[in-house]
Write a structure and sequence with these properties.
By secondary structure, the chain is mainly α. The chain has 27 helices and 8 strands. The longest helix has 33 residues. The site of one calcium ion has 8 residues, from strand 7.
Length: 509
């Protein structure tokens, strides 16, 4: 291929009349001294002359014979009737006053476009709806026709609707208007309408879950191909049919509730950031302090905009909890691998394993449990993972072995390590075999924790009701009703966080 600068040089040479004259003289055999500025250019010209064939484009006949096989925006369907869809859209708009659709009307428009209902807000915003509060039939059809002509599958269309102009990827903030509309209009989330301060928490949670699941490259930018390989758009389509809690990968309200409550317990000053000592309290200090240090060193947070010095945000905690409670997923294995790979050379070496195991041993000794010597533990683990290269465990080895969770807990989480130790190894294998048919580790954890939280909440309410009744009996003004823990405790006015100032952007720091 011809480089851009080479091509430029060639053009300027050919257009330079002085040089053409010189070259013509040279061709006729005249022998004279070339000015030095021409010598260089002559050389460049001669190089072009020597290899002209290399740079010629393929003949049209040849290139026409190769069928197109790369469709970044989806493979075009034959017999796709764009005009049929357009007339359906026109008919839908004709029911609206002045043929203008508001955001509330967009559900019908989405259906006329043959899109899932919750594409309504992206369709509205892509047609410029937020500037005027409505979209006109002409503007909408122009936008949608162009998308139909250029994007040939749902992933390409969704990408086109959400991405910033000129971008072929999605960043975290690109999902916010879409998710805000889900929060505002999904029937299972309407109870949140009174608590707008939790909209941003829910949205942050879902955005992080989307990137956790879909952005396989960890780049912070979801590509069309990543979107296509994921199950995200299926979940968006199911939003209009199913209970939102059925969306275990992304939208579940119950999962959000569990994640946020877990964070709330750790974030004692409720500024939405936690430090190392806060995170250490998770799960009764079960997690290795060495690995917590690694999380705070940026090993797994550096690709997202971080962070207050020595702190991680709620968004980072979502990644932590998902990884901690299900060590069988691709992202989780990558997450802990990055933490354990201290020197960042892409393999876990023996000294790295020993570094983490040492702390487990100390903890066990303090609990009067006799730890397995490192060499024995290592043998077990190498047997489990069966690395391709002896003594070096790669990410690929870990993903392939199907028991990465046991390996990781051995080095990172004492409580879970001891749990695994007590289990019959064959029962673990059998569980592994049935994978996919049963709930994931994350779903099991979330369901159990949700049940506990709801029970606690009910008990609190009962206690408080009794307390209030007692106070009323004594005819004391209920000034202490603040003690009651509401659904989610709101930061008080004296808190450092001003909710008015707390915009969504803060969640994405
Ligand atoms: Ca805090
Ligand atoms: Ca390493």
């Amino acid at each position: 291929m011809k480089s851009g600068s080479m091509r430029l040089k060639e053009i300027s040479l050919r257009q330079d009349p002085d040089l053409r004259k010189e070259l013509a003289l040279l061709a006729r055999g005249c022998d004279f001294v070339l000015p030095s500025r021409f010598k260089k250019r002559l050389k460049a010209f001669q190089q072009i002359q020597v290899h002209p064939k290399k740079e010629e484009p393929l003949t049209p006949a040849l290139s026409q014979n190769i069928p197109k096989f790369y469709f970044p925006k989806g493979c075009p369907k034959t017999n796709f009737n764009i005009d049929g869809i357009i007339s359906k859209i026109e008919k839908t708009f004709s029911d609206f006053p002045l043929e203008r659709a508001t955001l509330e009307d967009m559900g019908k428009v989405a259906k006329a476009c043959e899109c899932p209902m919750y594409w309504k807000a992206p369709l509205f915003y892509a047609a410029g709806g937020e500037r005027t509060g409505y979209v006109s039939v002409h503007k909408f059809i122009a936008v949608w026709r162009k998308i139909l002509q250029t994007c040939h599958d749902d992933s390409a269309k969704f990408m086109q609707l959400l991405a910033k102009p000129g971008c072929n990827y999605l960043e975290q903030e690109d999902f916010i208007p879409f998710l805000q509309d889900v929060v505002n209009t999904h029937p299972h989330l309407t109870f949140l309408s009174e608590a707008s301060e939790f909209h941003s928490r829910y949205i942050t949670t879902v955005v992080q879950r989307i990137f956790y699941q879909v952005n396989r490259s960890w780049s912070g930018r979801i590509t069309c191909s990543e979107l296509r390989k994921s199950n995200f758009l299926q979940h968006v389509a199911l939003l209009e049919e199913e209970d939102i809690n059925q969306s275990a990968d992304y939208f579940s309200y119950e999962h959000f509730y569990v994640i946020y409550c877990k964070f709330w317990e750790l974030d004692s000053d409720h500024d939405l950031y936690i430090d190392e000592s806060d995170l250490a309290k998770h799960n009764d200090h079960a997690i290795s302090s060495h690995v917590i240090q690694r999380i705070f060193s940026g090993a797994v947070t550096r690709n997202r905009k971080v962070h207050k010095e020595g702190k991680i945000s709620y968004a980072d905690f979502v990644w932590f909890l998902l990884s901690e409670e299900d060590k069988k997923t691709q992202t989780s294995i990558e997450y802990w691998f990055r933490c354990m790979d201290l020197d960042g050379d892409g393999v876990l070496s023996m000294y790295e394993l020993e570094y983490f195991y040492e702390e487990q041993c100390q903890k066990m000794e303090s609990m009067a449990i006799e730890p397995l010597p490192f060499e024995d533990c290592l043998c077990q683990m190498l047997d489990l993972v069966k690395p391709q290269t002896e003594g070096k465990i790669t990410l690929h080895d870990l993903k392939k072995c199907k028991q990465a969770n046991i390996f990781l807990d051995t080095f990172l989480n004492l409580e879970k390590y001891l749990d695994h130790e007590q289990k019959d190894p064959f029962s673990v294998l059998r569980v592994g075999e049935n994978e996919g048919q049963e709930l994931s580790d994350w779903e099991k954890y979330a369901a159990e924790e949700y049940a506990v939280l709801v029970a606690e909440e009910a008990a609190n309410e009962q206690w408080n009701d009794g307390y209030d009744a007692e106070l009323n009996l004594l005819d004391v003004p209920v000034a202490n009703a603040d003690d009651k823990r509401p659904f989610f405790e709101l930061p008080s006015h004296s808190s450092e966080v001003d909710l008015e100032e707390y915009e969504y952007e803060d969640d994405f720091e």
